[in-house]
Amino acid sequence: MPIYSSDSDWILETKRTAYAFGLTEAGLLAHRYWGKRLPARGDYPAALETEGWASFNGPSEVTPLEYPGYAGSAYTEPCLKVTFADGVRDVVLTYVSSEVLGDELRVHLVDAVYDLRVTLHYRVHEQYDLLERHVSIENLGNAAVTLERSFSAAWHVPAQHDYRLSHLVGRWFEETQIVREPLTRGTKVLESRRITTSHGHNPWFAVDSLTEPALEETGEVWFGVLAWSGNWKLTAEVSAFGQTQLSIGVNDWDSAVRLEPRETFTTPSSIAGFSSHGFGGASRALHSYVRYSILPHGVQPRKVLYNSWEATFFDVDEASQIELAEIASSIGVELFVLDDGWFHGRNSDNAGLGDWWPDEQKFPNGLTPLIERVQALGMDFGLWLEPEMVNPDSDLYRAHPDWVIHFPTRARTEMRNQLILNLAKLEVQNYLIGLIDQLIKQHDISFIKWDMNRNVSEPGWIEHDEPKELWVRYVEGLYRVWGALRERHPDVIWQSCSGGGGRADLGILRHADQIWTSDNTQAVTRLKIQEGFSQVFPAITMEAWTTDQDASYIPLEFRLHVAMSGAFGIGANLHHWNAAQRLEAAKQIALYKEIRPVVQTGDLYRLQSAFAGPLSSLMYVLPDKSEAVLFAFRTHLPEPVALPKIRLNGLEETAMYRVDGLEGLLSGAALMSAGLEVALKDYGSAVLQIRRVG
Ligand code: DGJ
User: Which of 359, 451, 548, 550 is labelled catalytic?
Assistant: First the structure.
């Protein structure tokens, strides 16, 4: 039983970790412990009773509060900030009761005076060593209450002064770059104000000690994410009293939620964990959880896809797509995706978004002849959509100019010549559900690529009671649309794309099966993008294509191998590939089909970081350790050079393994301690299968 609950103390245990909090004598709900699981319940420290420090710092500032409301003299980052109908802006949460429902602990708090109930939900994911927290806030009174901030959780790491924060930064074409920086006294804020997750930062954190840093497979790491695809905020605060608190939730910037009497607001979940096996252990915990607990299609094998965007851009038609489909199927592709440019009036990015029927010139007989040909070639058919967007030059916009997010007195800023439909509005949601439902019903579509190519501007919704709800209600509306479509078409596989990886988070992964990692497919840059992405997301979600963006200087085999370490696809113009290149691609696709179960369901070990130098390697190992795949890459290294051996990981020490290309067998211990020699020339790469024998 992983949850111990009394009326003043709570301990949540997973296989290897524990989390504890309790009431102080003064009745404050305080954090007690987060780290390695301890043998006895009495081992966990008691809730800190802290008296404060001088007249300037009261107990609620110096005590690590489990879910701090903005009240009294609590100057640290609050999780909850409320304005009551009478103008009072101080929320005093007191403990009422707790209950355990299976793997969930609920802790009920109420405001001391007003009829506001706050319930802290903790779900223990014992087998993944993860904890999931969210909060529900109920207005039980007779007057509306405004929530100005309602975070999902405050995560406290043990009190000490020397932490380091790892996080992911980026921009379009350069997503998920790993940054590690010291946390010093004060508050570091990471956020999105773009109505979506953003390319710039990802709602993930990992904290380790600066003086005893964690490595890939060793050291202590506290880590977490927010499962939310809208504006989010992470504050990493080091207090004057040696406490470090990571608070995460829906961004409060320009935001408010109005709770009418009897209404409840439920925050998104924050999922977090503690790893004593470094950053690798942290990633593997998240990966397993995503694979088995979040993804709608779980570990159903992802097919090798071909996407025609970079081959034809907007210049698509039935004949050109059929030609590409024929080549794609001849090299072993299993899913053919028709990208942008197929719908009414779409000859460039100036027009068409919103008018989702086949362009009469490009597809005079509709999409069905192409779909039938693709299927006759033995492939599934996939289609690109950008449902949230509209070009002013479209029939949809001409009919409903009021459906876009805007302020009536301001010009509507266009980005890529498009505006954003207000998915906070029920009529817009219903329209999209009906439209896409019909599209899927009328065509045999197995895969949808859902794109989003701009961020918000002029965030108006002024006819709504609380216009600042836009940020939250938009995302809830988006989830409702995806949810309804998934329910009606449960077999369709969905991809989340926002100009590459602009919408990558655990919230969207409850709806999408995979994510388009980046528009940047240059293999060398991509190694870093994928390594950053892999901190959070498993390979099965990491859509990776080989294109020709870097064909002039990177060998095809290297480019294919980089993409094969994720959910593999091809995005090149296949007309430009000669017979030898097509043969090479066919060979690698066949290999990918063999290694797919290991890549898509195995545990990831990052052996040598692409951020650290010109040699990088990673491997996937099946959970039962019977099979593994090693990927190794060398970019440029001036000769002469003695390449270091690659020390593998995750194998069974005493078992014997056969490695591709090697005579005889080697023990797991030898492969992990002595390592494996992999000879690579500049821009050389290797994919080696490793199988347990006996
Ligand atoms: C951005 C995506 O990331 C690309 O793959 C492609 O689908 C274009 N949009 C199409 O406009």
Answer: 451
